[in-house]
Amino acid sequence: MIGSDLGNGPRVAAPRWEGYAPLREYAALGDGRTVALLARDGSVDWLTMPDLDSPTVFGAVLDARRGGCFALQPELPYQVSRRYLPSTNVVETTFTTAAGAVRVTDALTLPGGALTPTRELVRKVEGLSGAVPMRWSVQPRFGYGAASPCISRRAGLPVASAGTDALAVCTWGAGEPLCAGDEIEGAFEIRLGSRADLALSFAHEEPLVVPARAECAARLEETGHRWRAWLRDRACAGRWQKAVTRSALALKLLVYAPSGAVAAAATSSLPEEIGGERNWDYRFSWLRDSVFTLDALLTLGCPSEAQAYFWWLMHATQFNEPRLRPLYRLDGGVGASERVLALEGYRGSAPVRVGNAAAEQLQLDTYGELLQTAWLYATASGQLDPDIARRLARVADFVCASWRQPDEGIWEVRSPPQHFTQSKMMCWIALDRALRLAERGLLSRRHAPAWRREQAVIEDFIETRCLSENLNSYVRSADAEEVDVSVLLGLLRGYASPQHPRMHGTIEAIRRDLAHGPFVYRYGGDDGLQGTEGAFVACSFWLAEALARCGHLGEAAELMDQLVGLANDVGLYSEEIDPNTGEFLGNMPQGLTHLALISAACAITEQGMTR
Q: How many Å apart are CA 599 and CA 545, to the nearest integer?
């Protein structure tokens, strides 16, 4: 099976292709505000500052020559093994050479009891045996590589700055830092029992604070304790506990602590096809992910994160309600203008985009996602704020008036709008949840008769226009003959019961037309873009969950085992995987993939316990 040999035992790091590491080689670090990507060979190739959706300081993953990185590795040939320290997002990498072995521990350190302006990357180097020559290089490239840094010394320390951004390079036992052009570098030897420390301290529109060595060491240690303390109260039991635990930690990396928003992914423009144009910025929060997100947070026992996310969602959607945007900025804003950067792209995959024009699309499925999310929250809390209730009722009215429009759908196609089946199913779900909330007295019953009538009309449209007798399946869009795995979401949300023959027929059609082993493609048919894409990993987990809910527990568990084995050596997933090579594609770590894993694992476990 592809990926089955990708454990965390010692092996040679995969060779870079003209400076680019395979996406499968990356682990993620985070501090609740931003995320870094750390390659298996010890290079930090992605880091945005001060926030997850800010411009990059290190962006070599998008341009190996101009993007910038923080490299740290032995000067001798080596084998490497790595892991996340148990129950943390702290990475431990062990390099083994003919001269000895060295261990590097990396973290974006977590602040203390409250959020502070401090942003800090700490790298601890320990000698395990022998004597190993090491070399490091800090190549900051602010503003997505557009701003040339000014390298100077302040109080004897190297500092790189550009505009209102600055970083200090602090080293202890790691050799004398040398300023060479637009980079800062050094070399040292690490022996058995010795230790070196490197820290980058960042500032954005604020004074640059230079830490002491003991402070960095203490924060690194405390960061591990804080991650373990957070995970201690999480509910991650079951057959796939390890995978669910890692997915919970990956999801936590994508929670933007200042607002409670959850980013879809930590990166921008990692390609869905090498050399192709399907390169998008995923550092926003999508309504399509909202049900999975809130459900996962509640299931895992994260009430504070669930509440923060729900209230962020209510805040973000209030400004232009009842119409919804498909995605919102992490601060709740609606602006996401898309532009192209002057970067070559990962392995030549251009254009490199930041911002996302999908923010202006009409995606009718989002209305069902919002009402289902509100239903989950109200069911868990037993209440709904009266102002929110009035807004949700207006959203339901908007669905009644708007569901007949064609839209761009959940996959944000750039072809002409269509009557996508999943969009219509989620409009049905939106009205169904509004009616349920009204029955509980949480929404006004005044418009319930109109909601019920329109729901019946939507159902008639789906059953007469979006169902293929030839395929015995719901199809991608009205009057089409191609299938689309997104219809599973409508079915999983309750449009049809698990026992309904059409649900079984749809699953079989998807397995026949879109599945290749454990891999599942999103849809067949045109989407307005050139080229192809990999298999969408979340879709495979949706299929596993659908199989479980339809009573095929053995097949669901078998598929789940295969999918868990497709993660990289530290348990992370990107958006897509190439079925032929196992190569990761798309942005990472991908929130929807990890959310779908959690949902499928919990569903299979739950179905098994009830039978």
A: 7
